[in-house]
Amino acid sequence: MLIKIMQSLSVVATLLLIVALVAPLSAPASAQEKKTEKFFANIAGGRTRQIEVGIDSWSPEEERKKFLAILIEKGQEELVKALRETKAVGYMRIQGGQYTSSPIRLSSQGKTKDGKRHIILVTDRPIGLREAARSTQSIEYDLTVIELLVDDKGKGQGAIAPGAKVSVDKETNRLKIETFQTTPTRLINVYSMN
Fold first, then answer.
1. 8 Å CB contact between 183 and 160
2. Mind listing the pLDDT tens digit for each residue in 59-118?
3. CA R_g for the chain
4. Could you tell me if 170 and 131 are in contact, meaning their C-beta atoms sit under 8 angstroms apart?
5. Which residues contact 105 (CB under 8 A, 6 or more apart)?
6. How far apart are the two ends of the chain, measured CA to CA in Å?
7. Of 91, 166, 173, 190, which has the fewest beta carbons less than 10 angstroms from its beta carbon?
8. What is the distance of C-alpha 22 from the center of its chain?
């Protein structure tokens, strides 16, 4: 009888040892998996194209404040340099676009008075060789700003402003678009894939 109890304890101890060894290996992997929040939208006007936005994480408030301070104290050129040194928090991809993907450098969200999510995303806009060679005013507008307004189901509308010059709204202490290289383009049929 004592031998059977010892054998049972041995089996239980072996199972506990296996669980103890395997659990730490599998737990961090699932804990480290981050779910990218994805939004898709149709770009209004012209030929039908779609934009995909993936948000891996939201920029911390301290980082947002740091970028606003850089913009106020040193201007947009220094802001773009600081953004380019920051780890991407997501990506933007336009179907059939010149670039495969652009990293999102700044992401923030809030709620509107009617309860919708107000999402602002900023990426440093890549400048093509032709555009750089022409050295037009567009080089000064080296940010792209995406704004999404979505309901609790992830559906809504938005806009994308490629080539935006930005400043800080003194009343809200938030980023605002001052001028554009081109008129912002409406994003219609915005929906979330989460």
1. no
2. 999 999 999 999 999 998 899 999 999 999 999 988 866 556 889 999 999 898 999 999
3. 24
4. no
5. 83, 84, 86, 88, 89, 122, 123, 124
6. 56
7. 173
8. 34
DSSP per position, the chain: -HHHHHHHHHHHHHHHHHHHHHHHHHHHHHHH--PPEEEEEEEPSSS-EEEEEEES-PPPHHHHHHHHHHHHHH-HHHHHHHHHTSPP-EEEEETT-SSS-EEE-EEEEEE-TTS-EEEEEEEEPPPPHHHHHHT-GGGG--EEEEEEEE-TTS-EEEEEEEEEEEEEETTTTEEEEEEESSPPEEEEEEEE--
Q: How far is the C-alpha of 142 from the C-alpha of 101, rounded, in Å?
A: 16
Tens digit of pLDDT for each residue in 101-159? 889 999 999 898 999 999 999 988 654 445 444 544 455 567 888 999 999 999 999 99
Residue 92's contacts (CB-CB under 8 Å, 6 or more residues apart) are 51, 52, 53, 54, 101, 102, 103, 104, 121, 123, 144, 146
Rounded Cα distance, 41 and 157, in Å: 8
Phi-psi region of 18 (alpha: psi -120 to 50; beta: other; left: phi over 0): alpha
Q: Which residue has the higher pLDDT, 100 or 185?
A: 185
